[in-house]
Specification:
There is one protein chain. With about 375 residues, the protein is of the alpha/beta class. The chain has a single domain, classed as TIM Barrel, CATH 3.20.20. It is built from 16 helices and 10 strands. The strands form 2 sheets. An 8-stranded parallel β-sheet has the order 2-9-8-7-6-5-4-3. Strands 1-10 form a two-stranded antiparallel sheet. Helix 5 packs parallel to helix 15 and helix 6 crosses helix 8. The longest helix has 29 residues. The N and C termini lie close together (about 5 Å).
């Protein structure tokens, strides 16, 4: 005898548009953090500035990250992201390892192999991911229990500070600073730690280089297979989200929307979508194209317009602006999950959630819904 289990998030998007949280980095600005705050005693002697390494706040100021989660959840977010956008050994090396280019050298696969093998960086990346997921899990469960509405933790997997698609050397088009296997290894470490910390789903986001994303997807598949999650039915749902330029291309890899979908659909994601980019107005035509072409749920969480250093949030659009744009997308039937990226505070998410309340989600085919939601388990 078998029993069919339906993914709870699938149940949500069948009935309404699920709300994704906003930007942790933007919201941190509300707290007036300084260099000393992110260093704490643990990183007091670090040689490089750390304030732009916001993932470290999960270790040095976990109460701050918890408060940000609380604010987004109380604003109406169904899904909160872990504070792990740059929590790989590769990205963390930017803050803790001397740059060989400053001494006449260059970054290359030999340099990054040392990064991948560096115990301090590997352990640090694991700790950031696991602690961040645990903190998000704590608040998702707390607010979920208080409100009687389940909330979800998305393990955020960012794009890295290196590219597999392009050479940084104008005289050597074939040169790459890092190898596919090195990127895959870093992502496997991150995915395992996010799962260990209690993430409900994995979010490969802000994709500017589709080959980097492919390495992340291969890494996740290997983690699922090697750790027995495939056989046990314990695979986490996967959301894949790209950042696009003015022509709808995935930034460095320059793939069109259709080419991007072709490149990642093998991973059988729960959802695919667009985030970050140039703001909702410039994202609109590419979101429409994506919604027409994909056979899974569609997510959308744009930047609050273009960067503006004179704005309180650092971006042009306020809560009412973002609510208007996301409402238009929703009423066109383009989205199943919606929220905000850079420049979006809890106030933005509250406005978006209110504007989308009662608006029907993008329609999914019955076959898609069945594939996304259900596994059979023996009873």
């Amino acid at each position: 005898m078998t029993e069919t289990y339906k993914n709870p998030l699938q149940q949500v998007i069948e009935s309404r548009i699920a709300i994704i949280d906003g930007a942790t980095g933007t919201t941190i600005r509300d707290y007036g953090m300084k260099e000393a705050d992110i260093r704490g005693s643990r990183f007091a002697d670090a040689k490089k500035d750390l304030l732009n390494n916001g993932d470290l706040f999960s270790l040095t100021r976990p109460e701050l990250i918890g408060d940000i989660h609380r604010r987004f959840l109380e604003a109406g977010a169904d899904i909160i992201e872990t504070n792990t956008f740059g929590a790989t050994s590769i990205s963390q090396s930017e803050f803790f390892v001397d740059d060989p280019r400053e001494h006449g050298g260059r970054k290359d696969p030999e340099f990054y192999q040392k990064i991948i093998d560096d115990k301090f960086l590997v352990d640090l990346a694991w700790e950031i991911n696991e602690k961040s997921a645990q903190k998000a899990r704590e608040w998702a469960d707390r607010v979920g229990n208080e409100t009687g509405r389940q909330r979800f933790v998305a393990g955020a997997i960012g794009p890295l500070t290196v590219s597999l698609s392009n050479s940084p050397d104008a005289d050597d088009a074939g040169f790459r600073v890092v190898t596919f296997d090195q990127v895959k290894t870093a992502y496997k470490q991150q995915a395992r730690a996010l799962i260990a910390g209690g993430a409900d789903l994995l979010l490969v986001e802000t994709i500017f280089d589709s080959l980097n994303a492919k390495a992340a997807l291969v890494a996740i598949r290997e983690v699922f297979d090697e750790d027995g999650l495939t056989a046990s039915g314990g695979e986490l749902p996967l959301i894949i989200s790209a950042a696009v330029g003015r022509g709808g291309e995935t930034m460095i890899s320059a793939q069109t929307i259709e080419a991007f979908w072709t490149a990642v659909r093998h991973a059988k994601p729960f959802s695919v979508g667009l985030n970050c980019s140039l703001g909702p107005d410039l994202m609109a035509p590419f979101l429409r194209e994506l919604s027409e072409k994909v056979d899974v749920a569609v997510s959308c969480y744009p930047n609050a317009g273009l960067p503006n250093p004179l704005s309180a949030t650092g971006f042009d659009l306020g809560p009412a602006d973002m609510a208007r744009y996301l409402s238009e997308f929703a009423r066109e039937g383009l989205v199943n999950l919606a929220g905000g990226c850079c420049g979006n505070t809890p106030e933005h998410i509250a406005a978006i959630a209110k504007a989308l309340e009662g608006v029907a989600p993008r329609k999914l085919s019955e076959a898609t819904a069945a594939e996304n939601c259900c596994v059979e388990s023996a009873v």
